Amino acid sequence: MENYFSNLPAWVSLLFIPTFPITIYIISQIIKRGGIDAGLSQKQVNNIQLSIGGFFTIYLFYTFLLSTTGLLSENTLPPRVLLFTAIPLLLVLLGFIFNKPLYWKILDKIPLESLIKIHIFRFVGVFFLIGVYYKTLPVHFAVIAGFGDIVTAIGAIFVSRWVNEQKPWSKKATLIWNIFGLADIVSVIISAILTTKNSLENNTQSVIEITKFPFVWIPAFAPAVIIFLHISVFKKLKRDASI
């Protein structure tokens, strides 16, 4: 019988599972603060929080179903996990949220350091390296994905502090960090596609392990949300500079 759950030890999965619900909660709290500072009523803010929580709860459950029923487990090009989860989510975020005036109103009131701090969740990259240790992921793919995320997360700690302390170089540091973080996630997506292509052509190890629950949440959630957040930081820098 085909196994659609992770082959990593149970303790690794149990450690991983809370990561994304916690991240979603943190994002909703930051948006709540921005909404209050933007002059929204408590009811409006609560409705926004409920919408965020409800949407991502349904979305994570949707990816759980896709993963555990094996719909994402076939090694195809492009990877099904991108086609059925990451790309649709990115289209919603960039095509729908970016066109909402409310998004811009709240973004103007969210402190820049808060947008940067969210990326501390990218320490989740350590799970790629754990995958290498247990030989469930290709080394070249996992190293690119893991270390890139970890470096971005470490950078988020320092850059957010510099912004908060209003260091004279903080905006330039933010721009450099943001470019690196965006380039990192794009390189991970490209690496996943190239690794899949090589796997199909040469029968080498694939990235199918990250389509299994619970680690399917990484490709399903992280790329789209990370790209959205990085673009938001660029927008924030530009809008703050024009004030």
TrEMBL record:
UniProt keyword list: Membrane, Transmembrane, Transmembrane helix
Record flagged with keyword Transmembrane: yes
Keyword Transmembrane helix: yes
Membrane spanning stretches: 6-27, 48-69, 81-103, 115-134, 140-163, 175-195, 215-234
The name this protein goes by in its record: Uncharacterized protein
Species the sequence originates in: Arcicella aurantiaca
